[in-house]
Specification:
Elements lengths: L2 E4 L11 E3 L3 E5 L7 E5 L5 E7 L5 E7 L7 H17 L7 E6 L8 E6 L2 E6 L2 H5 L1 H11 L5 E6 L12 E6 L6 E5 L2 E5 L14 H8 L6 E5 L5 H8 L4 E6 L2 H13 L5 E4 L2 H10 L4 E6 L11 H17 L1 E11 L6 H15 L2 E9 L17 E8 L3
Helix pairs in contact: 1-3, 4-5, 7-8, 8-9
Bound molecules: S-adenosyl-L-homocysteine.
Length: 391
């Protein structure tokens, strides 16, 4: 079999599964893009099977420490293992969850979300994209109740692998948008139309946790999308809830959801940066601000610009809050470490002359498992801070 020899001191020797182009000492046996390759150390010892893409910065991703091919039978095995994990997690409905999440489920570049009878598949690496039909066959075998399988291949992550972006139906009838109920909350699944795969499943556990701060408070949910936080706050007895997003389609879904759920939420279509600025200028205040922005950076290189954006919205949000008020904030980029995020926040708090007392820490839900040796798998960080005192 073709393969690669990895340079000493590469991250794979610290338990990571990625080989960057700068870590390749040599190729052997003429591997072709998308092939399964043997990964060897510089003493010719086998250290695993990986998928090869010379067009990507991550040239090889290890998916097994054994000799292993990428075939339908392997996919079914990994899929079943991933499903068992979800079934064992408290608070997760295995019918509505992320069934497979890439490296964290031993399938680098494969993401499968399940919404009842609809599965949404993303193939984010060349090797997995080439094996899309084997993946579809595996989904049909492991999840026979699935009626429609949609390829949601419009992620920008595909560009890094040299792949085209598209959305299509791979199997079964074309799914129409439909509502789902999750606990107290209502969402709209639009597998073909909405952004990402439709819902931010990684946040599902955090809605009620954040809602628990909202009783009697005036709430501003920034970057609300379909309003998971806004709905949870309205349910938990917030005095008022305003929800802001720049996407008209997300807000249309939010209004439908709120109506179905009998909740009063004011949906505002605006750029959060502009809205916070206006509110600050007019001396407006509230009691709970939620910030859940998109990732402002796709690389370490643009981190400085991203931090400027993060600091601006945090500074403005803090100025809307008085002692006793709360700020709930999330970052969803693995490029931004917890330490960097908190340093930015401390800086904003200092400029806003606010004393912040931490009340809670949040993370991604368990259907997005974190691998200790792949720090990139931990990307969602969140915190609740109380504005302490009048000190
Ligand atoms: N809190 C949401 C997820 C937020 S994802 C949830 O739990 O479902 C980020 C959202 O920010 C997206 O809905 C996107 O449309 C919106 N967005 C991105 N840039 C924005 C901006 N500058 N102003 C307002 N909304 C923005």
């Amino acid at each position: 079999m073709a393969g690669i020899i990895v340079k000493p001191r590469s991250r794979i020797f610290q338990g990571h599964d990625w080989v960057y182009s700068s870590e390749v000492r040599k190729l052997f046996g003429d591997p072709q893009p998308g092939d399964v390759v043997s990964i060897k150390d510089f003493r010719d010892r086998f250290i695993g099977s990986g998928m090869y893409n010379p067009a990507s910065q991550i040239v090889v991703r290890r998916f097994s420490r054994q000799r292993q091919d990428l075939d339908a039978e392997f996919f079914v095995r990994r899929l079943r293992r991933a499903m068992n994990l979800r079934a064992s997690l408290a608070g997760i409905d295995p019918l509505f969850c992320r069934v497979v999440w890439s490296e964290s489920d031993g399938l680098p570049g494969v993401v499968i979300d399940r919404y009842g009878e609809v599965a949404v598949l993303q193939t984010l690496t060349l090797a997995m994209d080439q094996r899309q039909s084997a993946l579809v066959a595996a989904i049909q075998e492991a999840l026979p109740e699935i009626r429609s399988i949609v390829a949601r291949n419009d992620s920008v992550m595909r560009t890094a692998e040299g792949l085209e972006r598209s959305v299509s139906v791979l199997h079964g009838p074309e799914p129409k948008p439909f509502p789902i109920k999750w606990g107290d909350l209502v969402f709209t699944v639009d597998a073909l139309g909405a952004q990402k795969t439709g819902l931010y499943l990684d946040q599902f556990e955090n809605y009620a946790l954040v809602g628990s701060w909202s009783g009697g408070r005036r709430v501003l949910d920034c970057f609300c999308h379909q309003g998971g936080f806004a709905q949870a706050c309205a349910k938990a007895g917030a005095a008022s809830v305003e929800a802001v997003d720049s996407s008209a389609s997300a807000l249309a879904a939010l209004r439908d959801n709120a109506e179905r759920n009998g909740l009063s939420i004011e949906a505002i279509e605006a750029n959060v940066f502009d809205l916070l600025k206006e509110r600050e200028a007019s001396g407006w205040t509230c009691d709970l601000v939620i910030l859940d922005p998109p990732s402002f950076t796709r690389s370490r290189r643009s981190l400085r610009d991203a931090l400027r954006g993060y600091k601006e919205i945090h500074l403005r949000a803090l100025k809307l809050l008085e002692p006793g008020g709360m700020l709930v904030t999330f970052s969803c980029s693995h490029h931004l470490s917890a330490a960097e995020f908190l340093e930015m926040l401390a800086d904003a708090a200092s400029d806003a002359k606010r004393t912040l007392r931490r009340r809670a820490i949040y993370t991604q839900r368990g259907d997005h498992p974190i691998l200790l040796n792949i720090p990139e798998s931990e990307y969602l960080r969140g915190y609740a801070f109380e504005i302490a005192g009048g000190w």
